[in-house]
Amino acid sequence: MTSAAARDRLRYAVAEHTRATAAPPAPPPREPPPIAAILRGDWHDTPHGPAFVRDDWFSLDHHHGALPLSCALEAPAAGLAHLLGATHAPHPSRLAFFDTETTGVTGGTGTYVVLAGLGSYEDGAFRMRQYFLADLAHERAMLATLAADLARFEGIVTYNGRAFDLPLVDVRMTLARLRAPWAAFAHFDLLHPVRRLYRHRLPACRLADVERRLLRIERPDDIPGSLIPSLYFDYLRAGRAAPLRAVFRHNADDVLSLVGVLAILGRLLAGGDLDPEDAAAVARWWEHAGEPARAAALYTDALPWLEGGDDWPWAAARLAALRKRAGDRDGAAALWRALWSQGDPHAGLELAKHFEHRAGDPRAAAEITRALLVRASAPARMGLEHRLARLRRKLDAPSYPPARHSVRTG
Amino acid sequence: MPLERALDALRTDLDLAPGFVAWRELPELPPRYAQFPLATDPRLVDALARRNIDRLYTHQAQALAAVLQRQSVVVVTPTASGKTLCYNLPVLQRILDDPEARALYLFPTKALAQDQMQELHALIGDLAVPIRTFTYDGDTPGDARRKVREAGHVVVTNPDMLHTAILPHHTKWVKLFENLRFVVIDELHQYRGVFGSHVANVIRRLRRVCRFYGSDPLFICCSATIANPRQLAERIVGGPVALVDDNGAPRGRKVVAVYNPPVVNRELGIRQSSVNAARAIGAKLLQAGVQTIVFAPSRVRVELLLRYLRESLKQRVGDPPKVEGYRGGYLPNERRAVERGLRDGRIRGVVATNALELGIDIGTLDAAVLTGFPGTLASAWQQIGRAGRRHGLSFSVLVASSSPLNQYVAANPGYLFDTSPEAGLVDPDNLLVRISHMKCAAFELPFEDGEPYGPDAAELLDLLADEGVLMKAGGRYHWMTDVFPAESVSLRSAAIDNFVVIEQGPKPRVIGEVDRPAAPLLIHDEAIYMHGGAQYHVDRLDWHEKKAYVRKVDVDYYTDANLAVDLEVLESFERAPARGCDVDHGEVAVRDVATIFKKIKLDTHENVGWGRISIPEESRHTTAYWFALSPDATDGLARGELQDGLWGLAHLLRNLAPIFLMCDPRDLQAVAQVRSPFTERPTLFLYENQPGGVGMARRLFEIHAPLMRAALDLLARCPCPSGCPGCVGPTIGEHGTNKRAATVLLRRLGERAAPESAATAAAAG
Lengths: 410, 765
Description:
The complex is a heterodimer of chains A (about 400) and B (about 775).
Chain A (H helix, E strand, L loop, with lengths): L3 H13 L18 H4 L3 E5 L2 E11 L3 E2 L2 E2 L8 H8 L10 E8 L10 E10 L2 E8 L6 H12 L4 E4 L2 H15 L10 E4 L1 H8 L8 H9 L12 H11 L5 H26 L6 H13 L3 H15 L5 H14 L3 H13 L3 H14 L3 H14 L2 H19 L14
Parallel strand pairs in A: 5-8, 8-9
Antiparallel strand pairs in A: 1-2, 2-7, 3-4, 5-6, 6-7
Helix pairs in contact in A: 3-9, 6-10, 7-9, 10-11, 11-12, 12-13, 13-14, 14-15, 15-16
Chain B lengths: L1 H11 L7 E7 L6 E2 L7 H9 L5 E2 H11 L4 E4 L6 H15 L4 E5 L3 H18 L5 E3 L6 H10 L2 E4 L1 H8 L7 H5 L1 E6 L7 H20 L5 E6 L5 H9 L4 E3 L9 E6 L3 E3 L4 E2 L2 H14 L4 E4 L3 H16 L8 E4 L5 H13 L4 E4 L14 E5 L5 H8 L9 E6 L4 H8 L2 H5 L12 H14 L2 E2 L8 H10 L3 E4 L2 E4 L18 E6 L5 E7 L3 H4 L5 E4 L2 E9 L4 E7 L3 E22 L2 E21 L5 E6 L6 E11 L1 H4 L4 H23 L6 E6 L9 E6 L7 H7 L1 H14 L20 H13 L5 H9 L1
Parallel strand pairs in B: 4-9, 4-10, 5-7, 5-8, 6-7, 8-9, 11-18, 14-16, 14-17, 15-16, 17-18, 22-26
Antiparallel strand pairs in B: 1-11, 2-3, 12-13, 19-21, 20-21, 22-23, 24-25, 25-26, 27-28, 28-29, 28-30, 30-32, 31-32
């Protein structure tokens, strides 16, 4: 086709877009795929060829972190239904706990699912089943086995599965002219409730952060997910299977953590005795779910216990807003006073409005407004100056009676 | 007839009349009609009847008939000949037959896509059948995308979106691909050169994905008049295409003139500026009530002319005719308003860049004024075609600028009227372009062993597998890295990110956009940015945030920045001695440097000041081919002659090389250095416009000898006395030495006949 020099130039061009991951040329993979030599597993014969499937059985009292694997079975049904935002949820024994490992995070048709982990309650135990793409030519068999196994479930539990794992499996299924049977499944994508409940305490909300916090799990020798594509490519190219043990373990640990996180979230939303921090988090949940009365009750119970802690200011501010909306102006004002005494400018403004329009005390309102002006940013100044000018006019008006009592705060 | 009177006035105007160096009257062409093909759905016939269309023009009927016989077609259509029916009819007909059928429309720009959507919506409205059409581009909101993917009968998009967003995610578009019956490629002539080669490869990927889903769509292409529409279509589409070029649309009588502005300084040979001349002619036409479009060669000139025309018209009593600007950088709603105003006649004049040349639907106007020759005959005739009612008289005039090319056209108007338009060349099998798209294709679907995919597919697949990009397993080549290949392959050479122009004040607002290459020229600190005829002073350009902060001013000057090109050799990949020179190819850094701007007084165009431009210098790395002349090759030529000869040669090679490379002249740039700092000798560089290059420089290196011989041959056969656009470039008057000096150089570089094998290689391209 071309001269040797041109071929070199071509190599350079080929490498250009792939420098980040291009591995040194390696010998072709050996046959049969070496995975069976490293990990116990079964070769399932399917009409589409062989698929490598590995089962691990755990007893229900096996502890993954702080909780036994039976915990999800004991999660209150009402809590699980709240988690779904539905009237009822499938029984946990009918749920598939699911996570995938892939050749990339960009998505699209060229990203492969190399390992799918499916945990479920089977015959009084917990079965961890993993489907591994032992050879690229086995993909259809692997997906067909997975699709067949999924058929018996009514719901699926994932972490960010709505945006990542499920669409990606759908892409692979479509390419293999198969279909995953989860269209009608109830989907517990735990990322979203975790974000809503723990955003204040866990800024990143990665599964690793959540399991550390909720299940007290540490994984010192876990491999980072970003390494998985290159370990897998290395396995395909050079037949190096041993490092994949860590990938299987990583995947299984993620799936097992889903069980505990589901149980904890279900328990939280079912009500009952809650830590004050949790109660405040659940109160936020009910606010978002459009149940302000339920939220207000939880905040009210939790607030005294939270005083002095990180959660008090936001919880107090939320409760004040709920009380204001419900017409409980004095109740709201009491919280604003407390917040303002800690320097919360938003509470200060609300309090100024309250004094001016509700309590009929422009002098107190003006005092707060002046204090706010000192710290206000440029865009906020205009509104405050306008307010202060109006308050001054009210104070200067001859009809205004002198102050009869001073402002009590706190 | 106001136009008749206006033309009489122009030809008798004492100032203007002597400048008309050509005045040709093109006769009226009567319409030629054909009946609807028998298979046409009666609902479609009824819907068209409601829009007063009760028969088709011949070309529309031919296109419909060809498609009904399952042939792909390319329709060559002048402006405003009803081309959209050529594709909307067969598409709607098919969807009426089979509501599951789908069509994909590709337009080169978002603005065009929007425009065509409106037209299609109107027709579907008359049909009263639930046919859903959607645009899918970068502006489509995330939550709407799902609906487009699942429910759109007609999806309107651009090649870039097809490349990065649709094909790599084709499983989300199952419904579209399973039922894809038509792919419409409008403005086909835009897809030439390297851009066209990329698009041809995107289409190749599209067809491959269609095969996976069991569909085999027909292609309906529309092209402006070029020399080789059918060949271009077949290369882009990758299959046989029938040509429909028997245009049955009527044309009224049409006058096409060339105007050369008068000499204002005889000693220096300086002519009146084309902007002022276009202003005088445009104002006369508008004052006479003639709806007129004025084309200007740059955005600055659009704004200048807009301002000037408004001033000229202000002196009249009563309400002056409304004139608006239209160019890249106006916000979409502004553009829509101008389009509407032109259609309903409220706007009488528009000053535009070639954004309007791209087939935006404004109907046609009575007169077109071209400020300067737009560079190619194909676009000159597209601009001329903007004036031309179906009945009655229309008028177009080319106002020559002082550039050699323009002056050549003014001296030889036959070049405009009698030369065939340019050919659209593409090379879908360019190795580097094809390799990048093979990677994208492998990402989309694994390659089967032995799958046909252009020349040497098997060898290229093995090469990609050796490099670890693909992995062969079970007789298929799988994508095997964690990168998303389409992201690193750009179809266009120019970056398409925009700078926004923000008017400061209590309520800051965005008044316009400027694309990245133009930003250093238009919105540098202290520039006067003109928009809609108003002036804004650029207080600050935030290069990193891509924002320019401006405030409205009223000053008597505008600013004009110049771009200098600086080329530096980084590395020579290969060198070979050749006759009279050393030939290299290698990597170069090209810097476009905007260093100073001038303040120029409005109306008089005096230079009233200047300033420095400080913008981070950005250089592009690309590949170049160059040859350094040996002393005996330049022997006896004075320095001035050598410079003329080198520039002449540069012009000649930029015209000639694309024919060998199957690319567009815009894909190559030439730089001549009388003494290159790298070779220390007189050197001519041809470099690739695409960053990184696509292998054309190496190819030029390989064909150096036949290229020189072909250049000498072309020069010897060109009958012009001292240079023309077709050879070494136009020269003004009889004094230029370009042609003579270039001939001397070429005789020394390429006289001796090369071995037969090299000549065959060149002919094979």
